[in-house]
Amino acid sequence: xxxxxxxxxxxxxxxxxxxxxxxxxxxxxxxxxxGWTLLDLIRHTGSVQRWFSVLLRQQIxxxxxxxxxxxxxxxxxxxxxxWLAASATVAAEAFATVESDAPMWAWGADQHARFWARxxxxxxxxxxxxxxxALGLRPEIDPALAADAVAEFLVNLPFAVGFAxxxxxxxxxxxxxxxxxxxxxxxxxxxxxxEGFGLTPNDADGDTPAxxxxxxxxxxxxxxxxxxxxRTAPGLEVHGDQELLARWFAxxxx
Length: 254
Hints:
By secondary structure, the chain is an alpha+beta fold. The chain is built from seven helices and five strands, in the order αααααββββαβα. It starts with 5 loop residues before the first helix and ends with a helix.
């Protein structure tokens, strides 16, 4: 289980997001989210925070039938930065109503309230990076946070077919892909089987070579998995079955 304080980090990452967009033209295109502008990115991130906050306050026990929530969207474009900051406050208030280990329905692997705080953090982090990329800035991600977000992505991806339907194509006959962090401890092996795919236990493969490997810093692995970097990018080392890797990246879009 992660030792990071996901709840506090939601506030921290949102504050960074708000600060970096101050003075920016909100019509600026976001290349990593084709068709979106900075305004779209802010609106999406704040909406996700407010939506998850409703789920947390209600401590839902089954899949919700509606996503209609009061977003309190600002009337003017200039109000969106403050609205995003306020969204993090809404989230903090929701966190205060429920213990992290309270049982809850979640679309992913962890059926507890902590799933939603961690997922909210990853959404906020990745879209903060999107804003930096749109503004021509070099993203900086704390290595421990990046590694936690890599683990969160890979553990939950097998459950994401409802909104990432191409993941249903990630089937195989036992092929493995290993993602290895080069700036600290971190090693994740994904196995593709006839019935699906998923992470193998940390000690299951031992020193067994994977069919394909990707090595890089935790931040680069995170950006690669989310499609913000190409596997040919400097800083990444890729070895093994290139056809397997091509199939993975073609169907693992989140």
